[in-house]
Amino acid sequence: MLERLFIQNYAIIAQLEISFSKGLVIITGETGAGKSILMGALGLALGERADSTQLRDKDKKTVIEAVFKTMRTASIVQFFIEADMEAEEEIILRREIQSSGKSRAFINDTPVSLVQLQQLATILVDLHQQFDTLELGNKHFQRVLLDARAGCLQEMTAYSALFVQSTAIQKKIASLEALLQKAQQERDYKIFLLNELEELNWTDGEARLIEEELDLLSHADQIRLGIGKIGFVMNEGEQPLIPQIRTMVSLLQSLASHHPSLPALVARLESSYVEIKDISNDLESLLDGISVDDKKMEQLNERLANAQRLSKKHALSVIDDLVEKRTQLATDLAVFENSQDEMTALQKQLETLHGQAKALASVLHKKRMAQVPILEGASNELLKRVGMPNASLKIDLKPIALSASGTEEVSFLFDANKSGRYESLHKVASGGELSRLMLVLKSLVAGSLEMPTLIFDEIDSGISGEAAKQVGVLMEELAHAHQLIAITHQPQIAARANQHLYVFKQEENGSITTSIRVLSEQERIQTIAKMLAGENPSEAVLASAREMMKGLVV
């Protein structure tokens, strides 16, 4: 509920603060006293467009603050989660307007965008002004009203969840189809590329090995010649190296006993002899394994050339990256196959969800169809009570494909004068008629819907007498479970108030400003009597006002 409204430097309001009670809050006052200005200020706090011409003092900023006491309803909690803010029981909406026209919006002292302010405001307040059709003309709201009356809000919630799920899967399918279509166009070419790489069967590090082997083969003759010369020096020739070392070892061994340093030198020379003999043997073995193989060289050069060609084809800087490229192509083709499997699974899931959604949509359709004549009858009966005897509401269910609302589009049609021609509310209903129609419909669904604070600006336009009384009765009933704030000129409506606020003008520091105060019971009697008979009401009129406040007279 709206607990408090603070207004500073707005239009003819210097500064005022209003506290609101629960139930039915009625605002009255003389024409031009500033009642509509109050609604304009509240509208700014709820996110309406700001205008620097509304500043009373151009040297000061306008500040409007609306304080709400709320329960942590699902819609409020969801808003604060999405806004990344902490949900509290007290919510403060504040708007500041500079003389430049620039405005700032705050929720609980946190700067927010105007869109965020408006989103939260629609959860907290239903501001229905005389010439503002607002949500009543919204087909979503019309459908919610019908579903609330038909008692199928739970089914609608379940259906919405299924529809959201199926919509998400349809988006996935569409995205996957686009991916598969593109992949299909590339698939054959990728298979060709993969076959090339698999045929080559290149291995990591193979380029280095081939280059080493080619280097060996291209120098085979030189290597064989060099090793041959070394072998000849070691084992053949006029003075072969190995036999000479053997002779030197024997000579030193014969002298070793005659000098203490010689045994160690003998050991070292023997070790060198063994090492050189091993080197000779290894060179001989190596020589056996080296041969000039022109065919092998040709094969290796051809393989390296193929690898270089494919590397250039795939724009690779390193030949060995062909291994990774082959893996990537194989993965891409595997993803294509997996995507086809995923597509099949998603289509089956979508088919299942559609089946479930259709079943629930059928339940919704039956409940709605059953409720349509009941809601039409109840609405038309109440329209007569509130001074619209010739008005008639018709609810049309137009069959459509499976959609967010089910398998029908709900439309509220209106005939204000028994013309037999029903048209959309925006086309045929006046501001006052729409306000009363809104009151009628909301009174019929009040027990089924989570509704915010309801605010009606001059709902009594064009009515009086019994019709005004019935509007007051409906508002009183609706206010039992919801806070309802209304500006009125009708004593029959004002008499039903739980709180009566009176707006008046007064002179302050040489200028006129708007003020507001809560009326006592005696002041209410005087005010309602004046609404009935003008200034200086008689005792009979005062008595009528008292009885009216007790609901005894029109």
Sum up the overall morphology in one term.
elongated
* Number of distinct helices: 17
> Sheet bearing the most strands, described?
6 strands, antiparallel
Instruction: State the helicity in percent bands.
Output: 55-70%
Distance between the termini: 30 Å
Strand content bin: 15-25%
Mean pLDDT across the residues is: 86
Q: Order of strands side by side in the largest beta sheet? A: 2-1-4-5-6-7
Summarize the structure.
This protein is an alpha/beta fold and 554 residues long. It has helices spanning 35-45, 74-82, 114-124, 139-150, 153-200, 206-218, 220-235, 241-255, 262-289, 294-313, 322-385, 425-428, 431-445, 465-478, 491-494, 521-533, 539-549, and strands at residues 2-10, 13-19, 24-29, 62-69, 90-97, 103-107, 110-112, 125-128, 392-403, 406-415, 423-424, 453-457, 484-487, 499-508, 511-518.
Account of the 3D structure:
There is one protein chain. This protein has 554 residues and is α/β, with parallel strands linked by helices. Helices cover 56% and strands 18% of the residues. The protein has a domain at 179-337. The chain has helices at 35-45, 74-82, 114-124, 139-150, 153-200, 206-218, 220-235, 241-255, 262-289, 294-313, 322-385, 425-428, 431-445, 465-478, 491-494, 521-533, 539-549, and strands at 2-10, 13-19, 24-29, 62-69, 90-97, 103-107, 110-112, 125-128, 392-403, 406-415, 423-424, 453-457, 484-487, 499-508, 511-518. The strands form 3 sheets. The protein has a 6-stranded antiparallel β-sheet with strand order 2-1-4-5-6-7, with helices on one face. Strands 8-12-13-3-14-15 form a 6-stranded mixed β-sheet. Strand 12 (453-457), helix 14 (465-478) and strand 13 form a beta-alpha-beta unit. The longest helix is centred in the middle third of the chain and has 64 residues, at 322-385. 29% of the residues are buried. Mean pLDDT is 86; it is low at 129-134.
